[in-house]
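Quick question, first post here. What does this chain look like in 3D?
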Amino acid sequence: MVDRVLKALGAAHEGSVGVLLADGVEPGPVYFDVGSGPNVPSSREWHAYDGRHGRPRAAVLRGSCSCGWRGAAQYPLDWTVLPHDQPLYEVDVDLSGPIADHEAHVSAIRDAAVPLPAELTGILTDLVRALDALALEEPLVTLKALADMRYVIARSGQDAVYELAARDVPTDEVATALGTNTAAARRYLNDYLYP
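> Answer (accepted):
Ran it through. Tokens below.
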């Protein structure tokens, strides 16, 4: 349960495996032709870059994060042994390097972030446990609790943002404390000021 709370705190750092093309460029999303319609599905998942159906073909895997971080280590894909007619997600590709690099990145971010007091982590853990149980037994009660919590969160968050402004805490310091980048921290603070 504590892992779930900690994972939620690191949600700004999703990802793990990114790709580069043979020319060293990080490709944009792959779009999938599913016929006519207003919505065209897309993906940035590493396995979408398999060269099939006109898609770009990944040459290198590397650690990647939604916060903008990219791992320095590169893990080449050997297309002489990879099947050309099979989706990459069905092939045994070693992802341990990029995943380990991403986990190291997230660990460094988490270590630099302001630690939550054990008492607060315990409260959050108990709250998650209670809400999980209620969601199955009393879904309306769960939704009511969450609606009430939105009010508490908005008010406490606004108070905290005003206090940070009164103390002239720089946004980059807030970003480090929250375990995110400056742009995301600025959006986070603005969400409390301008709900």
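Strands lie at 15-20, 30-31, 42-43, 60-65, 75-76.
The helical segments are 2-9, 96-112, 118-137, 139-166, 171-178, 182-193.
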